[in-house]
């Protein structure tokens, strides 16, 4: 048998008339009905009501926000607000509509089915032509090199530039330590990335690393340095190892890479250039595969000068597992496939 609140109020009223104390009344109800019985504070509240000569056992109507706050007008208004300002906050919506936060949440998540996400940074706002060019390039590469299985992949030498900092701060996850129950939370002084830095170019193939070339006596790479100093050293290293093999060079569309002098030099050396779509750093194997790995290994270490930083960089290169280089090329072709699935847009980390 289920008892209503009105039934319990009648019992409380009986005990009140019988001059029982609120404590005795609550104990009697608890003994008889267990968890279904009202608590002591409820009994006291009704005793106070009966002392004020209340005779009705019905609950009083409580004024509050009407359940109609979630209506077509408010839903349409919230939709318009987030379309006009996708960064609008709950408080602003509440001030405009004068409804509770729970009602706003219901409108947003149950009626409009929206969610708030952080924007993902992208390298460039691609035009329709640039998107089309990315797709065509991926299709051409996948067909030409049989999705990365064609032997000509081993003739490709790829490379790019990056900065090496004298101090690269650790990521938060790298500073995690085990702490016992009674120990205080560990702290660590936050250090900014050191301004001292060195730019290097690094090249590798599907079988092994080729060379690391630091930029000397200048702050940025230009075409003159690239085709007179950098590329001759790269080609020399490749030909030492594979004197009879052809060389297919892949680099991105940086101005020093696409300069006419650079193209003329490569043509004179009979080096075939592997094209690259514009504004596509996520399709450069150095940028998404190799550089992040080696920079993670260098985090948290301080170097006194650029020479020391380059030496440590090269040491990490030598200690890389032998299958890393072929793995980078495999991921490169996998990214081409992902580019096609993402309908020409940029995509996040894999």
TrEMBL record:
GO terms for cellular component: nucleus. Its main location: nucleus. Residues 5-51 form the Mos1 transposase HTH domain. GO terms for molecular function: nucleic acid binding. PANTHER family: MARINER MOS1 TRANSPOSASE-LIKE PROTEIN. This is Histone-lysine N-methyltransferase SETMAR-like. It is found in: Nucleus. It comes from the Eukaryota. Gene3D superfamilies: 1.10.10.1450, Ribonuclease H-like superfamily/Ribonuclease H.
């Amino acid at each position: 048998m289920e008892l209503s609140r009105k039934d319990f109020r009648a019992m409380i009223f009986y005990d009140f008339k019988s001059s029982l104390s609120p404590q005795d009344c609550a104990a009697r109800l608890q003994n008889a009905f267990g968890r279904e019985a009202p608590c002591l504070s409820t009994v006291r509240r009704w005793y106070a009501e009966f002392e004020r000569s209340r005779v009705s056992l019905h609950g009083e109507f409580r004024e509050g926000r009407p359940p109609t706050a979630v209506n077509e007008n408010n839903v349409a208004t919230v939709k318009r607000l987030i379309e006009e300002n996708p960064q609008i906050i709950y408080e602003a919506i509440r001030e405009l509509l004068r409804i509770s936060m729970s009602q706003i949440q219901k409108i947003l998540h149950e009626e409009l089915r929206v969610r708030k996400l952080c924007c993902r940074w992208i390298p460039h706002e691609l035009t329709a032509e640039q998107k089309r060019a990315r797709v065509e390039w991926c299709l051409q590469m996948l067909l030409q090199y049989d999705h990365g299985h064609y032997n000509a992949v081993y003739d490709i030498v790829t490379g790019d530039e990056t900065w090496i900092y004298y101090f690269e701060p650790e990521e938060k996850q790298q500073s995690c330590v085990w702490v016992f129950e009674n120990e205080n939370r560990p702290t660590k002084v936050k250090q900014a990335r050191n301004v001292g830095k060195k730019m290097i170019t690094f090249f590798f193939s599907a079988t092994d690393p080729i060379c690391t070339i630091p930029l000397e006596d200048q702050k940025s790479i230009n075409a003159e340095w690239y085709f007179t100093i950098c590329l001759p050293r790269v080609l020399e290293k490749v030909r030492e190892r594979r004197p009879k093999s052809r060389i297919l060079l892949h680099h991105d569309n940086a101005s020093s890479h696409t300069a006419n002098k650079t193209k003329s030099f490569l043509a004179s050396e009979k080096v075939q250039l592997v094209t690259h779509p514009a504004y596509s750093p996520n399709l450069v194997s150095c940028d998404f595969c190799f550089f992040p790995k080696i920079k993670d290994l260098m985090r948290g270490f301080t170097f006194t000068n650029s020479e020391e930083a380059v030496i440590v960089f090269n040491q990490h290169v030598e200690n890389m597992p032998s299958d890393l280089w072929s793995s980078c090329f495999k991921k490169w072709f996998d990214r081409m496939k992902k580019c096609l699935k993402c309908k020409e847009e940029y995509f996040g980390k894999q």
